[in-house]
Write a structure and sequence with these properties.
1 helix, 12 strands, about 10% helix
């Protein structure tokens, strides 16, 4: 989709400016995670960032793999926060606790996804990146679980999958070749210490930052 591609290009440009200006821009950024923002998500128990790349699973669905990485600088760990397919969110609007969202991988434009395949290492539920140009199916949606009214940037939250009720999790299992050392990301049926996530580096859009005339995602 040309519009989504244009948004990704512009967000990457904003990201370069953010990194160039270091911490100066942070003071003017919103305190909440907002629709359209481009973020890295850290699993607070295992200190790894949610990551993907154009490497397919060798078992299960055969879809694009999703992992956790320790390297904080890897550009393949950026994800865009978007609304669900039939109810887009307003760009720059704060994400509410309980809101259903899509989490779209910046580099490949595929959505964070899970389904009833077993994960390759822990035998939990496989998590993949799915779709083309930001459009997949109804198994791409996650509910943000947090305290209060909105998803605070410095708050640990959980992501509960709408279709299968599992929580996005990491329990520490490590892959070998070709993604040696990366951690398995999977879905677990119960909330626990392994499924807390916090927003880290990124570009957090405000309502006044309108990259395109089209203002919904």
């Amino acid at each position: 989709m040309e519009v989504l591609h244009a948004v990704h290009v512009l967000l990457q440009s904003l990201l370069v400016l953010l990194l160039w200006s270091k911490g100066d821009a942070r003071e003017s950024e919103p305190s909440h995670v907002t629709c359209g923002s481009l973020v890295k998500l850290l699993n607070t128990r295992h200190n790894v960032r949610l990551h993907s790349h154009d490497v397919k699973y060798g078992s299960g669905s055969g879809q694009q793999s999703v992992t956790g990485v320790e390297n904080a600088d890897d550009a393949n760990s950026y994800w865009q926060i978007r609304g669900k397919p039939n109810r887009p969110c307003q760009r720059g609007a704060s994400i509410a606790c309980g809101q259903v969202i899509r989490i779209t991988h910046m580099k490949t434009s595929r959505n964070l996804h899970t389904h009833r395949f077993s994960s390759p290492l822990s035998n939990n539920q496989e998590v993949s990146a799915f779709g083309e140009n930001g459009e997949g199916d109804d198994l791409d949606t996650w509910a943000v679980q947090c305290d209060g009214d909105h998803w605070e940037r410095d708050e640990a939250v959980r992501f509960k999958h709408v279709g299968t009720d599992v929580f996005l999790s990491v329990t520490g299992e490590q892959y070998g070749h070709p993604i040696r050392g990366q951690r398995e990301v999977h879905g677990m049926s119960a909330p626990n210490q392994h499924n807390w996530w916090r927003s880290m580096e990124g570009v957090f859009l405000q309502p006044s930052q309108v990259p395109l005339r089209h203002d919904e995602l």
